[in-house]
Specification:
The complex is a heterodimer of chains A (333) and B (174). Chain A has helices at residues 12-17, 33-39, 74-79, 81-86, 88-95, 100-103, 108-111, 141-144, 167-173, 191-194, 198-203, 278-283, 291-301, 313-329, and strands at 5-8, 24-27, 46-49, 59-62, 65-69, 177-182, 185-190, 218-225, 230-236, 247-256, 259-268, 275-276. Chain A is of the alpha+beta class and 333 residues long. In chain A, the strands form three sheets. A five-stranded antiparallel β-sheet of chain A has the order 4-5-8-6-7. Chain B is 32% helix and 14% strand. The chains are: A alpha+beta (333), B alpha+beta (174).
Chain lengths: 333, 174
């Protein structure tokens, strides 16, 4: 790890001010940043520490909204009674992420900014193979190589990686908004639109851009609408704990006489963004809460999936995860 | 107000109950500092990327990966390592004793991290049954695969009256 200059920010505004020159990066928990530094994924001359900013801490109910400060750790979010009651899918996603000791450092603000787990991307510098995220224009080794864990939606030939965050899937499903502070002041970004697929980024003329957060902006917290009904987060992985998802699904269900009155559902690790199944959400009201009834609805909503040669199984697995999440959210399993 | 970015930073913290002031390069991890500067080599450098848990220490009583923590992030905090667990007279901490009683190790490399994680796991209230221990201890890898014995030791220590007392820095503060 190369050395850097270090300063502690006294206010969020002071931290944002330092980001203008793009030579400064923010550290909160540091669980991603330190590994980026080690691998050469990021390099910075200066690091500004926001860890002491009490204004970015805390979890509180504010009318019909739940407010979560960016510095709340994944364990704090996952075990907070307000979150487990009003946003169970988010609590579950947080506690299924990483390990107990990583969750004591990792913050909910930084978590959604984690980069892909693509092994070609995560290699130590000097990079032994092409990767457009690491060296724009060099190519995508995964596309011609191993890609069984990669995207089934929204990818381009330039990059097939997925966003691995668990909490981001729940935040997108819950219609959370990120509070963001930049040089021009505060704004909000709906978490549904926070991340960009490779196709969306290319259409915007910045093929390797991964989020709508500006390079000089800071996430200060989230606001979630509190709504009635059950929620669930289903994570499918190769071991029972401390592993990234192959696919995941977050769902919220409100029932009326054993049929779905309203439902929301999002898939994780299938694209470079959480993947809301809007077509299913439109079709689900009136559907019985059974595997047989739900499966074709989800299947239709995933009809535009475009799997790569090695990851067709993810279409089936994601469909099943979505059905399981809906069943669990509705209390049927 | 423009922030001043320092290349050397003075940090004051408590280490195993005793105050300590040090000057570090900002990139110095808590793990490297403990091992190379202080000489406390209980916390191990297994993967150096947060994947194995052998570097687990307590910061303000919470377990964290020493390799994912910078010393500069520990200003004013209380750090407890495995060296701070046993009593001054050498009497083992109840969790250490439970690991010995249950043969909860083979090569022992992961044991300091397992012990620190177990102390926290019990204090958090997560050592309630087999499944909960396995879930909440999953951040500590044991390549000898002593998991059944580790799980038994954590549950035994959690049941024992001795660990109802303070742990971590509170304990070291006696």
């Amino acid at each position: 790890m190369r050395d850097f200059g270090y300063a502690r920010a006294g206010t969020a505004e002071a931290a944002v001010e330092t980001l203008a020159g793009r030579q400064t990066v923010v550290i909160a928990g540091g669980t991603e940043l330190l590994n980026w530094f080690r691998l050469g994924i990021a390099a910075a001359d200066r690091v500004v520490d926001i860890g002491g900013l009490d204004e970015l801490r805390g979890i509180a109910r504010d009318g019909d909204e739940l407010r979560i400060g960016a510095l709340a750790t994944l364990n704090e979010v996952g075990e907070h009674p307000l979150v487990t009651q009003a946003a169970g899918a988010l609590a579950s996603a947080c506690l299924q992420a990483a390990s107990a000791q990583v969750r004591n450092r990792a913050t909910i603000g930084g978590n959604v900014l984690q980069r892909t787990r693509c092994p070609y991307f995560r290699a130590e510098e000097p990079l032994p193979w092409p990767c457009n995220k690491r060296d724009p224009g060099s190519g995508c080794t995964s596309l011609a190589g191993r890609h069984e864990r990669q995207a089934i939606f929204g990818w381009t030939r330039d990059c097939v990686a997925v966003q691995p965050s668990d909490p981001a899937v729940a935040l997108a499903m819950l219609d959370a908004r990120a509070d963001v502070l930049g040089p021009a002041g505060a704004r909000t970004i709906p978490m549904r639109e926070f991340h960009l697929t490779q196709r969306e980024a290319a259409a915007a003329g910045q093929p390797m851009r991964e989020t709508r957060l500006g390079p000089d902006e800071l996430i200060t917290g989230y606001r979630l609408p509190v709504s009635p009904g059950g929620q669930a987060y289903v994570k499918v992985r190769e071991r029972a704990s401390y592993e990234y998802a192959i696919v995941s699904a977050a769902a919220a269900v409100r029932l009326s006489q054993n049929r779905i009155a309203a439902a929301r559902v999002a898939l994780g690790s299938v694209a470079q963004r959480p993947w809301r199944l809007a077509a299913a959400e439109a079709e689900l009201p009136g559907t019985p809460l059974t595997r047989e009834a739900l499966t074709p609805v989800i299947e239709r909503a995933m009809a535009d999936a475009a799997p790569l040669p090695q990851n067709g199984f993810k279409v089936t697995m994601a469909r099943n995860a979505a059905v399981r999440a809906l069943l669990a959210a509705g209390g049927a399993s | 107000m423009t922030l001043d970015f320092a290349r050397r930073v003075e940090v004051t913290l408590r280490l195993n109950g005793r105050p300590r002031t040090t000057v570090v390069s900002p990139r110095t991890t808590l793990l490297d500092w403990l091992r190379d500067d202080v000489g406390l080599t209980g916390a191990k450098k297994g993967c150096n990327e947060g994947a194995c848990g052998t570097c687990t220490v307590l910061v303000d009583g919470r377990r964290m990966n020493g390799c994912l923590t910078l010393v500069v992030q520990c200003e004013g905090r209380a750090v407890t390592t495995v060296e701070g667990l046993a009593a001054d007279g050498g009497e083992l901490h109840p969790v250490q004793q439970a690991f010995a009683d249950h043969d909860a190790f083979q090569c022992g490399y992961c044991t300091p991290g397992q012990l620190m994680s177990a102390v926290a796991c019990i204090a958090e209230g997560h050592a309630t049954d087999d499944a909960s221990v396995r879930e909440w201890m999953s951040g500590n890898i044991c390549r000898c695969s002593a998991y059944p014995q580790i799980t038994a030791a954590v549950l035994a220590a959690a049941r024992g009256p001795a660990v109802d007392g303070p742990v971590g820095d509170d304990r070291a503060d006696r």
